[in-house]
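Here is the promised in-class demo. Please do not try to memorize the tokens; focus on the logic of going from shape to residues.
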């Protein structure tokens, strides 16, 4: 389905990664940190530009683009493959994970429906990519990402949520250095 593929590989996109069965994996710091470290690796080694992100308990939203000739689809494929294997390995090796049997049983169940996975399926396959081509759309998605923890009643203000780029947008240090979407100066992220 063309509506669910990244057509313009070097354009700005809003993406959603969802854990199969909406399993609340990211309630644990260890698993969130695996994802954060993986994003940092993609920034440093794969030319991924991250403009905004939020890690919720069972899904992640991103605004990203790349200048890499490999294209955004390849980077996202590698990111999802690496994080799924790393998080499942961390679950298997964590004797203190009280939910490991339940989570692994679900991941095995979902793997049955994907011919590419023989044992576990961690992420839903669709990233729901939306190419961001207007300032209105960019602002809407940026607000949506930063307000996600507020609407979930985790925090009162977006910048109070550690696993989000909201802090970066008010001049504070975030967990990841992001490219700030600066509409006043039209900084080279998109040609509007």
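The designed amino acids, position by position:
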């Amino acid at each position: 389905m063309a509506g669910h593929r990244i057509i313009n590989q070097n354009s700005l996109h809003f993406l959603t990664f969802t854990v199969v069965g909406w399993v609340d994996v990211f309630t644990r710091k260890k698993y969130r940190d695996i994802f954060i470290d993986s994003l940092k690796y993609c920034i440093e080694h794969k030319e991924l530009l991250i403009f905004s992100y939020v890690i919720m308990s069972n899904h992640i939203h991103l605004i990203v683009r790349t200048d890499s000739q490999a294209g955004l689809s390849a980077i996202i494929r590698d990111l999802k493959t690496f994080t799924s294997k790393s998080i499942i390995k961390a679950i298997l090796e964590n004797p203190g994970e009280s939910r490991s049997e339940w989570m692994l049983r679900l991941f095995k169940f979902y793997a049955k429906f994907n011919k590419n996975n023989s044992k576990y399926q961690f992420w839903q396959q669709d990233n729901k990519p939306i190419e961001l081509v207007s300032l209105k759309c960019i602002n809407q998605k940026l607000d949506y990402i930063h307000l996600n923890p507020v609407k979930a009643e985790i925090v009162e203000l977006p910048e109070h949520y550690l696993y989000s780029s909201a802090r970066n947008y008010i001049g504070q240090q975030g967990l990841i250095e992001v490219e700030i979407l600066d509409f006043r100066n039209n900084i080279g992220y998109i040609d509007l």
